[in-house]
Design goal:
236 residues, 15 strands, CNF1/YfiH-like putative cysteine hydrolases
């Protein structure tokens, strides 16, 4: 596991070695129950991810007395201002993004696949958070986790053609040796900068490539795999 930990937040980026059970299995549930204690969480939630740009606010009422909630609601981002609630997402090439806004002490996790990314899920999450809090974008910090990166993420011309009409910068695509590669982190960074997030507040320290780095699960490297790595963020 990879851990970012300070006196305000903790971010857990899981790796292949951490879990050998796919989502929805009994093994995954047991893994989550163990994480509650390992990370000193009061509660933990994972949504059913649908590759959309919707999400929701999480408070203690959401759990209805339970410590662990798995896939009881749908969406691709979660945010809260409550301490010791673990917000989780699952990825195996999609980009896990964690937002932390220091002024209001709010944290958010985002599951950014290519569909959500090109439709600005990170921007949608920030706008929804703004509806609830007076966000200060100067105090918003962003962490990119492991995902498929442009060194390996090859796409077809059809992929590019399907994105026509969307406002994307040229640098999200690059051509090498007659192949086209998609830069998933650059796509999300574009929307972050567009909405006003400070570039210096965007961390790529944990943004390893899941395709060429065997420490992580990858659907593109291991076709058909059901294994995913969790990303969990929590306010302390």
């Amino acid at each position: 596991m990879l851990i970012y930990n300070n006196n305000k937040i903790l971010i857990y980026f899981g790796q292949t070695q951490d879990i050998s059970s796919p989502p929805k299995s009994l093994g995954f549930k047991k893994f989550c129950e163990k994480l509650l204690d390992t990370l000193s969480l009061q509660k933990l939630v994972f949504q059913k991810q649908i590759h959309n740009v919707t999400g929701c606010f999480i408070n203690n009422n959401y759990f209805q007395g339970k410590r662990l909630v798995l896939e009881e609601t749908e969406g691709d981002f979660l945010f809260t201002n409550k301490k010791n609630i673990g917000l989780g997402i699952l990825t195996a090439d999609c980009l896990p993004i964690v937002l932390y806004e220091k002024k209001n002490n709010v944290i958010c996790v985002i599951h950014a696949g290519w569909r959500g990314s090109v439709n600005g899920i990170v921007k949608c999450a920030i706008l929804q958070m703004r509806e609830k809090y007076d966000l200060d974008l100067n105090s918003l910090f962003v962490f990119f986790g492991p995902c498929a990166k442009s060194c390996c993420y090859s796409v077809t011309q059809d992929f590019i053609d399907n994105l026509k009409g969307l406002s994307l910068p040229n640098n999200v695509f690059m051509e090498r040796e007659n192949k086209i590669y998609f830069d998933l982190p650059a796509c999300n960074k574009f929307f972050l900068l567009e909405i006003g997030v400070c570039e210096k507040n965007i961390s790529t320290q944990y943004n390893f490539c899941t395709i060429c780095d065997n420490r992580f699960n990858s659907v593109r490297r291991n076709i058909g795999t059901l294994l995913r790595q969790p990303t969990i963020a929590v306010l302390k």
